[in-house]
Write a structure and sequence with these properties.
Oligomer: single chain
Largest sheet: 6 strands, mixed
Strand content: 5-15%
Shape: globular
């Protein structure tokens, strides 16, 4: 679904299931990964093999269409552009029950700014560059060309739907789609919640001769933090594990002398959040690393 491509026909209220499938095939042909939604605008549930996390929870972290389960499984990750899968017998029951269609914006190289009320729409008109818009029940979807990490409640009434998320298909909208602006990207970068190493850190004696603790040498400490930031930033996978192990390494070196400041921790949290970690995940990883080291 690009600014220049032919877009499918608008959504019609109470459209029968066969029309949902036809629209889904139109979208798939345009390179937009799609999936059916059941009542309540939610995806169909996991299959029996994946229920209650029995599959290990990994398929929902994969790319769209990567799930090999029968039927429509794993929410947004089930979205596909494969017409054979969309029309397969495994997906037929879902299409018969479907009440609407969803698409994976990030899989199509798009980002949807979901404006949930009139106040949010007013804010967007005052703050964001104009782009293609789609009316919703309570507000509007603003669609930009470019993908990013999804984030909910970035401000009152505003969600960002792109990678690892889905948006309801409500029609092609109006206006010219423009490039994803930095004003939207920065909305997803929340201020981190730094955690101090703790008031009970064990003091490390200063080196003999009355010299200062080497960890307080600006070049030594800054180099260590910079290396930690780089390790997180360059992670190509297993981000959760990389963040935890990096926090563990930093604390094992600097956590017992009290030389870490809020500014240092903020740098680490910011690097982690730029890779998609939430502030809570950062806080948990930091706390777990401290516990592992007995701090």
């Amino acid at each position: 679904m690009t600014a220049d491509s032919k877009t499918p026909r608008p959504r019609v209220a109470n459209r029968p299931p066969v029309e949902h499938l036809r629209t889904a095939l139109d979208l798939a042909a345009a390179g937009v990964p799609v999936l059916p939604l059941r009542a309540g605008k939610v995806p169909f549930g996991n299959c029996h093999a994946c229920a209650a996390g029995a599959c290990g929870g990994r398929p929902h972290m994969k790319t769209p269409g990567s799930c090999q389960c029968p039927g429509v499984c794993h929410g947004w990750a089930a979205a596909t552009t494969d017409p054979h899968l969309l029309t397969s017998a495994a997906w037929a029951p879902a299409w018969r029950q479907a009440e609407s269609i969803a698409y994976h914006p990030g899989g199509a190289g798009l980002t949807v700014v979901d404006l949930d009320n009139t106040e949010a729409v007013t804010w967007a008109h005052q703050t964001l560059p104009a782009t293609r818009t789609v009316p919703t029940t309570r507000g509007e979807h603003w669609i930009y060309r470019g993908a990013m990490q999804s984030a909910n409640a970035v401000r009152p009434g505003v969600d960002i739907k792109s990678l690892m998320s889905y948006a309801r298909w409500l029609g092609p909208g109006t206006g010219t789609m423009t490039a994803l602006p930095d004003a939207v990207r920065t909305l997803a970068v929340k201020a981190p919640s730094p955690v101090r190493p703790g008031p009970h850190a064990v003091a490390v004696p200063a080196p003999g001769g009355g010299g200062a603790c080497r960890h307080r040498t600006p070049a030594y400490l800054d180099r260590g933090i910079a290396m930690a930031e780089q390790r997180i930033t360059e992670a190509s996978g297993a981000v959760h594990t990389t963040v935890y192990r990096t926090f563990l390494a930093v604390l094992s070196t600097h956590g017992r002398c009290g030389c870490l400041t809020d500014a240092h921790v903020t740098r680490l949290f910011t690097a982690a959040q730029a890779k998609g970690e939430s502030a809570r995940h950062c806080t948990d990883a930091w706390a777990n690393a401290r516990t592992a080291l007995g701090l």
